[in-house]
Amino acid sequence: LKDMADDFLAGTSFEDIKQQILTKVEKKFNTAQLLRKQLHHEVGKKVIKALLDSKELGFTTFMEFFNNYKDANKVLETNIFAYHPKKNTVSFQSQSIECYIREKEDIFIK
């Protein structure tokens, strides 16, 4: 966030900063194998739709979307989703993640 604020103060346009953030987020989705034709795309779409509807899921509910817990943990480790141990829930890691999903709704929502 500080880097983005520095860029803005240096005269970088809001749109350029937004694009930088979305590019970083897209790299996370690639690492998580959540993009089209990647290993976790279809299950990821289901998780994303559920989170868009409810904002958070119980940890067990999140895990049950996947064929096995090993895959679920790998996706969770990529920082697309955040685990909240006190409530034992999962949500989107950040607003930039949710923004990316809405920008790319043809990939994740439809």
From TrEMBL:
This is 4916_t:CDS:1.
